[in-house]
Amino acid sequence: MGVTALIASSVTAVGISGAAYAAPTSIIQNGTFESGISGWSAPLGGTLSQSTDAKSGTKSLAISGRTSFQSGPTATVTGLLSTDASYDLNLSLKFDTGRATQNFNIVLCTSSRSRCDVVASTTATAGQWASVQKTFTPLTSDYDILFVETPWNTDIQSFVIDDVSLTTDDGGPAVVEPPAVPGNLLPDGRFVSGFTGWTNTRGGTLALSDDAASGAHSLQVTGRENTQSGPFASVADKIELGASYRLTGKLKYDEGNATQQFNFTFCPTNFNGCADYGHTFTKGEWGSFSQEFTAEAKHVAAGWLFVETPWGSSALQDFKVDELSLVKIADAPEGPEFTSLEKVQTKPVGDHNPLVGHKFGADPHHLIYNGRLYIYSTDDTQQYELNSKDANGLPTQSNGYGGITRLNVMSTSDMVNWVDHGSIPIAREGGAAPWSRNSWAPAAIEKDGKVYLYFCDSGTGTAVVVGGSPLGPWNDPLGKKIIPDTVSRDYIAGGGFPAGMWLFDPEVFIDDDGQGYLYFGGNSQIGTAPNVQGPQNPKSTRVVKLKDDMVTLDGDPVEIDGPGMFEASSMFKRGDTYYYSYSSNFQVNEVPGQYPSRGGIAYMMTDDPMKLGSSEYAGVAFQNQGTFFGAGNGGNNHSDMFTYKGETYFTYHAQTRGAAWAAALGTPGATQGYRSVHIDKLEFNADGTIKPIVGTRAGVAQVESFDPYRTFEAETLAWQLGISTAKTDAASVEFPEHNGGGNMVLSGVDDGDFAGVSGVDFGSGAKTVSARVKPIVEGGSIQVRLDDVDGQVVAEIPVDGTVGEWTTVQADVTGAAGEHDVFFVFAAPEGADADADLFEVDNWAFTPVDDGPGAELVAQLSRTEVAAGGSVTLTASGVPSEAVEIGIESTYRALANVEVSEGALDIALVIPADIEPGAHHIVIRDGETELARLALTVTAAGTGTAGAGGGAGGSGTAAGTGSGTGGTLANTGGDAGAAANAALLGALLMALGAGAWMTHRRRRALGATESE
């Protein structure tokens, strides 16, 4: 072990009891273990527990499962021992197994165990308590731990200790330092006796302070020269891309504002491209900071971690820090699973955020037109296409926005299935306003059948085009910007738009009386010295009335004083209250109730849409997106609030698509600023204030079922993989009101790609499905599956026709009844190149079965083998009764009573856990009349097919309940029912794995319960 002897002033008492050296206060605070084992650990192996085998009192500390001779109970003594003082150690121990006698050592070590010294040794007899009493002077003050061990050449049996105390020779208590943080990547942030490794790289003076959060000292910085003057520690080459870390610390300041934000910042040595984590502290109090993060490229590139006050603030007060640490809490994930971005599932099946997974979009704004919800957004995909990318397509260049000249449009009637209408060319040649350079941040509104679409030409101004529908055609009524080109020259000359004010991010609002308003502007700091405004109150946005034509200003703009203003104005009315929201800047110092947090969506409440002073400030509705979505999802914030079909919603953007790409390709967080549109619910408190909105991947619920019995766009998407969309000149069958504009087709279709639609209501059942397609290769096909990409196949459409020409193809549908998610899964012909584009698809259409008198009853199980206690889903169409009973035979047992809706039912049945394994039937009855029976094999609990037991694979509906809608349908399999007239068909279905019963209203009367 390489230990040295310590200087001792008394001998060790071996194997005898005796009074411990008395001292009023023990450095080791919990040495009797009567109330637990807190303060003790086993970092070198073994398990600690409280024991009733006590030397005194009723409890002791036991260690078992020791893995080495050093495995023993351990207490922290960091900073507690001094070489110019003597200490009294008292300890009792006992062992029961192994040798007749056993040697034990009490050892002091540094945390790295680079130095270990034996304090005392004793020989104990099995089954008897041995006591140690030692007075000693430490050889160094660098010890971190005290522990009990057995010598390296003896046993590693379990043992117990009790009555442990460590005191100074005069009884005076030592200062208790917190334990060293294992794996700390920073210089020691406890500042026990110095601050080695900490520097004042950006000015100020560092010194130890006796005002500490814990232990003897903290580190104080005084004489700060700028906001970055603070304690610096090198983190060069210490952070691994994709790994997770926890940064913690404590801070205190005594001068300045009542509350003050301080940043814990990672920066490269050139201070360009930093990552800061802010926290607000209260004057005169020690406050704690903790931040977990996944390391992005900017963390890896960092040379420094330092503590600062926000840039742009005047906060240069002294402050102190303590207990600073940075530790890795999780390794980076294994290497990338994907090398193709097309195959990254950017929107997992079941999630409803982002709204679409196949394209980017930002700065969303709503429009309600003819009862349908449209969302417009900035076309970030255009900039992605222009910018540099690596070999896999991952962007290597930040968004920048400078090449964006188009605005995206998509729409829905149910909040989850979104039709991609493509993009509207706005700026430059070929656009609706060709004189403009860019089109960002749209705001749309309908009036008298026309759509007024406002946008900003970068930060230089706001413009408007007018359309005959949400997709045009468009005209430019002004031929110039409405802001500032139509604003009074006197207003501008009088300083109405101070230097630095961005004239962008429009919002348009029409009040109940028909009066229109235009909101615009932004920046965190405007004006010139000595009249600089910001970042607490930059007053950088404006509101102006519009005349009835919506393109002419009615008066001069009016200043808005939104606390912490940055950009992204939005106006929403609920009852008689107006809600003006905006994005807060990244320099504001948060003061609850007065100033917002950074990069969030703040809001104001007012009774007048033009009365927006700081007194109308109401709080923060939504924190920065990085709060909810993690690495790579911070950055600017932009939102819109609206009501649709009786619910209130909040739409915003986050970088979730890019984050999914980056994570899949092994560079988490490398999103480069390309954004995707989200929607979440917006709810209110009783006093009208907004409940904090939570950003989710789950998104919002579907508000109505999807009707498949019509021609609908193939680019209607709840989920997708691999596909893209492309413009077609053919007019949309579904949307004739778009005047021929905005029709798209599915393109880039490869083998295994899919398009999914949520909550499709087939009612009593679908008969056929058709698709308008343009084959690119011969022999492709489309599988129509229920509930999952690998779910039950209910139709397979051959993509026939002449290559390169549009045609309509059709297939029969079997087994699609009730409500299901539907997946169109695309398949290549045998031998085709895996990456070959197969075909394009314009639209889909289903036709219903005849559900009148005489229609066939079709029933099926989601599987034909299930473990006892598991579940199976039963679906049926053409059911002639309003209510039925469902049971299981051999010996009949009722499972559920179900109401039938429009001839259809869909229910998850839980198979009784005590049922005898073997062959059974699921039976549908109407009173004494049997309507259908389906074979089911029940295996013993814990066996059977995957998902068959424990309720997996079916709906969570309990036995004995059910309805004609809802539930899910898993993969098919098994045989058919045993009705005589259906025997042949049942055998065929069994061979095909259909697990179904079909009959033309055939019934049989029930006699005595059958035994099988």
Descriptive keywords:
6 helices; mainly beta; six-stranded mixed sheet; disordered N terminus; disordered C terminus; globular; 1012 residues
| Alpha-beta content class | mainly beta
DSSP strand tally = 62
Report the helical percentage: under 10%
As a percent range, the share of strand residues is 35-45%
> What is the mean pLDDT?
87
Main β-sheet description: 6 strands, antiparallel
> Termini distance?
75 Å
User: Count the helices. How many?
Assistant: 6
The global form is: globular
Low-confidence stretches: 1-24, 944-996, 998-1012
Radius of gyration of CA atoms, rounded to a whole number = 36 Å
Strand order of the largest sheet: 1-9-6-11-4-3
Description:
This protein is mainly β and 1012 residues long. Helix content is 4%, strand content 38%. It is built from 6 helices and 62 strands. It has a 6-stranded antiparallel sheet with strand order 1-9-6-11-4-3, with no helix packed on it. Strands 54, 56, 57, 59, 60 and 62 form a 6-stranded mixed sheet that branches.
